[in-house]
Amino acid sequence: MSLIKWTPEEFGTGIEQHDEEHKHLFGLLNGLHASVGTGERASIARSLDGLIAFVAQHFAAEEENMRKVGYAALDQHLVEHNKLVKTCINLQQQFHAGQAVITEETTAFLRDWLKQHIPHIDRQYGPALSAIQP
Ligand SMILES: [Fe+2]
Ligand SMILES: [Fe+2]
Question: How far, CA to CA in Å, does 83 sit from each of 79, 86, 122?
Answer without folding.
Answer: 6, 5, 15
